[in-house]
């Protein structure tokens, strides 16, 4: 039986005005994603994949249409409300890791907990636990430039998990990795899915296609199947 809907887009459009012309990055997207689904999004460069992820991840708002995340209407929220929803319900993993270079692995993972107002001792404990879960117990005090790409991505996943979000969004998470490190990331995301997370991955990696329940294909800002 299908689980309840956790993400719902109704006739969503995202336009970017640029130099007097309008780029229609997303053009009338309707989509329902159920709790504990694992979905891959594919499509050519410029088809709107990252734009869609940024809307679902509350990093941006639709130009038109409705966007419901975990029963909350995100399309009407102001920047603070969007940030709160993002911190609580969503973990984001990017192709380029996006770790802060001057912070250790532990401090990078702790960061969202500082924003969430968690006290220092609990922060350290949670960050250590999440880094252990991705196999990095012995790298807590390394800086990003002292870690391999695969290790940096695992730190980024640990950081995405600290607030215990229901939804994990990953935009080409293996794009900058060799195949062995990429395999590890696929396994970690698959394991998180088994533990009940809703996961959306933008990737052309066939390994993600294999473990996905659905593949959504975008072209010119529209879903084509
Ligand atoms: N901030 C912006 N301002 C203007 N145009 C934008 C902006 N962001 C994205 N676009 C345009 O919207 C379209 C969709 O971009 P998007 O980044 O979502 O593509 P993508 O499918 O993720 O591509 P890729 O596979 O190369 O990452 C592109 O034509 C892009 O140029
Ligand atoms: Mg992209």
Structure description:
The protein has one domain: Rossmann fold (3-Layer(aba) Sandwich), CATH 3.40.50. Strands 6-7-8-3-9-10 form a 6-stranded mixed beta sheet, with helices on both faces. It has a 4-stranded antiparallel beta sheet with strand order 2-1-4-5, with helices on one face. Helix 3 packs across helix 4 (120-133). The two termini are 22 Å apart. It has helices at 49-56, 79-89, 105-115, 120-133, 149-161, 179-194, 206-211, and strands at residues 5-18, 21-34, 38-42, 64-69, 72-73, 90-94, 167-171, 198-202, 214-219, 222-223. The chain contains 7 helices and 10 strands. It is an alpha/beta fold and 225 residues long. The structure holds adenosine-5'-triphosphate and magnesium ion. Magnesium ion is lined by residues 49-50.
Furnish the topology, listing elements before pairings.
Blueprint: E1 5-18, E2 21-34, E3 38-42, H1 49-56, E4 64-69, E5 72-73, H2 79-89, E6 90-94, H3 105-115, H4 120-133, H5 149-161, E7 167-171, H6 179-194, E8 198-202, H7 206-211, E9 214-219, E10 222-223
Parallel strand pairs: 3-8, 3-9, 6-7, 7-8
Antiparallel strand pairs: 1-2, 1-4, 4-5, 9-10
A few lines on this structure:
The protein is of the alpha/beta class.
Largest sheet: number of strands, sense, barrel closure = 6 strands, mixed
For this structure, the CATH topology is Rossmann fold
Care to count the β-strands? 10
- Overall structural class, as computed from helix and strand content, comes to alpha/beta
CATH H-tier superfamily: P-loop containing nucleotide triphosphate hydrolases
Helix content: 25-40%
Q: How many separate helices?
A: 7
Radius of gyration: 17 Å
Low-confidence parts: none
CATH class: Alpha Beta
| Span between termini | 22 Å
- The quaternary organization reads as single chain
Number of domains: 1
Small-molecule binders here are:
adenosine-5'-triphosphate, magnesium ion
Overall average pLDDT: 96
């Amino acid at each position: 039986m299908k689980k309840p809907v956790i993400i719902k887009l109704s006739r969503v459009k995202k336009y970017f005005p640029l130099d007097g012309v309008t780029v229609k990055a997303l053009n009338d997207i309707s989509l329902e994603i159920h709790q504990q689904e694992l979905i891959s999004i594919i499509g050519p460069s410029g088809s709107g994949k990252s734009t869609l992820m940024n809307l679902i991840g509350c990093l941006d708002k639709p130009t038109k249409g409705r966007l419901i995340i975990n029963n909350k209407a995100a399309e009407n929220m102001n920047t603070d409300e969007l940030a709160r929803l993002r911190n609580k319900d969503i973990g984001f993993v990017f192709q380029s890791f996006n770790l802060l270079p001057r912070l250790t692995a532990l401090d990078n993972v702790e960061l969202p907990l500082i924003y969430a107002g968690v006290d220092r001792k609990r922060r350290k404990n949670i960050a250590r636990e999440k880094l252990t879960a991705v196999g990095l117990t012995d790298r807590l005090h390394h800086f990003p430039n002292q870690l391999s790409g695969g290790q940096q991505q695992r730190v980024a996943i640990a950081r995405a998990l600290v607030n215990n979000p229901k939804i994990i969004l990953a935009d080409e998470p293996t794009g900058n990795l060799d195949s062995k490190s990429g395999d590890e990331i696929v396994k970690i995301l698959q394991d998180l899915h088994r533990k009940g997370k809703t996961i959306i991955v933008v990737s052309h990696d066939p390994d993600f296609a294999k473990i996905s329940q659905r593949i959504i294909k975008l072209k010119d800002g529209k879903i084509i199947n």
